[in-house]
Design brief:
FAD-bd; FAD/NAD(P)-binding domain; 390 residues; binds flavin-adenine dinucleotide; single chain; 13 helices; alpha/beta; oxidoreductase
Length: 390
């Protein structure tokens, strides 16, 4: 590949067809590129969890021509209510004025969002059940080997393969992926438990619970403090949840009743990790989304940030050529670094505050602080996130 290639002829591989990867590939296709996408799973769907998507993310669906479809599956969130471990209401925040100013935050089932995004990438460009085995950089070109036995050469490889990124493992060394001492589950519960548009969370003592109404149903998310590597055998999952959440007030007794009728196989489970990286670019390999900058799930901003990064890298690629790709990647980092660092730092604070595995006394103080945290302060917190240019 000796000649300089411009815009649409730049050869791009996107590894990971999740939220960041599909957003990026969809935007590139819209601009006439034809990126290859490889996605590890054989098919989409299956288990998942509910996402709160802020306009920072959902605005990108407008450019993709998918906002209306997204809205047909997503429900606007107008109220955010926080309860203590015992079920006392600590604060209920009205999100209406933020929505009026910046656009509505929505709740959506993650697999549903992936389906909407999947539609923006042509079938010919995406290979399911495939991942990379080797990434070999030679000057300005990247040779990639895949699990299906094929190899190809690219100008750029975009790692959008999530928090446990294979691209990152094969290409980067400065990775600090640390277990955050929390494990979590998600499953459906009776939609009657909260009204549409109201997200409710228990900020407990070493445990956290949330209810998020989506068009697909009411999603319950639970998290507890747990040592790293604690196993979660499917046949003991329900007992483990019951043991961890017994004695919690509010909506938890109803959730535990609902748990009885769940099939353990249908309960999503994962551990919390946090990722800090100094570099997102290694020559002609770049990371976006959780692969580069995963925030804690409790912050509720990871998908929005992943979509923003996808939009910025797609934008930069339309204004370069194969020779000056390095500059475009530098611009991507410049445009994203301080915003991502800032949001990540805040997400760490709020994530730890929400679960707070310290002592009953400190949790009681935390509860008092939440009661005193005014509507205005909450709005300022989110305005900072929503008003920044990308
Ligand atoms: C329980 C929970 C709740 C959350 N709630 C929110 C929320 O309310 N709001 C919010 O904004 N964010 C939330 N997040 C975070 C959000 O889900 C992530 O930040 C977002 O999904 C990141 O998108 P991504 O595309 O970078 O990664 P992912 O969504 O993880 O997608 C990665 C994709 O790459 C694929 N893949 C993985 N490895 C490979 C490989 N080796 N080769 C090829 N493909 C591969 C995966 O199958 C997947 O399709 C939550 C996360 C969790 C776990």
């Amino acid at each position: 590949m000796d000649e300089v290639r411009y815009g649409n002829d730049i050869q791009v591989l996107v590894v990971g067809g999740g939220i960041a990867g599909l957003s990026c590939a969809g935007l590139l296709e819209q601009r006439g590129f034809s990126p290859d996408v490889v996605e590890k799973t054989d098919e989409y769907g299956g288990l998942g969890y509910a996402l709160g998507l802020w306009p920072a993310g959902s605005n990108i669906l407008k450019g993709l021509g998918k906002y209306e479809e997204f809205c047909s599956y997503a429900d606007p969130m107008h109220t955010y209510t926080l309860l203590s471990d015992s079920g006392e209401e600590l604060h209920s925040y009205d999100l209406t004025s933020l929505a009026d100013e910046y656009g509505k935050p929505h709740l959506i089932w993650r697999p549903r969002l992936v389906d909407v995004l999947r539609d923006t990438v042509s079938d010919d460009n995406i290979r399911m059940g495939t991942t990379v085995t080797e990434i070999d950089q030679r000057g300005d070109e990247v040779d990639v080997s895949f699990t299906d036995g094929t190899t190809s050469t690219y100008d750029l490889v975009i790692g959008a393969d999530g928090i446990h990124s294979k691209v990152r493992e094969l290409t980067f060394t400065d990775v600090d992926l640390t277990y955050q001492g929390m494990t979590s589950w998600a499953f459906w519960v009776d939609p009657e438990m909260v009204e549409m548009g109201v997200a409710k969370e228990h900020w407990g003592d070493g445990r956290f619970a949330g209810l998020y109404p989506t068009d697909d149903g009411l999603a319950c998310f639970l998290a507890v403090a747990a040592p790293e590597g604690t196993s979660d055998p499917v046949d003991q999952r329900k007992r483990r949840i019951r043991n961890n959440f017994q004695g919690m007030g509010g909506f938890i007794p109803d959730v535990l009743d609902e748990l009885e009728s769940q099939d353990s196989e249908d309960i999503w489970h994962d551990d919390f990790y946090d990722l800090k990286m100094d570099q997102w670019v290694n020559n002609r390999v770049v990371l976006i989304g959780d692969a580069a900058h995963a925030p804690l799930p409790t912050a509720g901003v990871g998908a929005s940030m992943a979509m923003e990064s996808a939009a910025v890298i797609a934008d930069e690629l339309t204004r370069t050529d194969s020779e000056y790709l390095g500059q475009a990647l530098d611009h991507y980092v410049t445009r994203r670094r301080s915003r991502v660092d800032h949001v990540q730092q805040k997400s760490r604070q709020i994530g730890k505050f929400a679960l707070f595995d310290h002592s009953t006394v400190l949790s009681a103080l935390r509860d008092q602080a939440v009661k005193l945290y005014s509507q205005e302060r909450m709005e300022r917190y989110y305005e900072d996130f929503l008003s920044t240019e990308i």
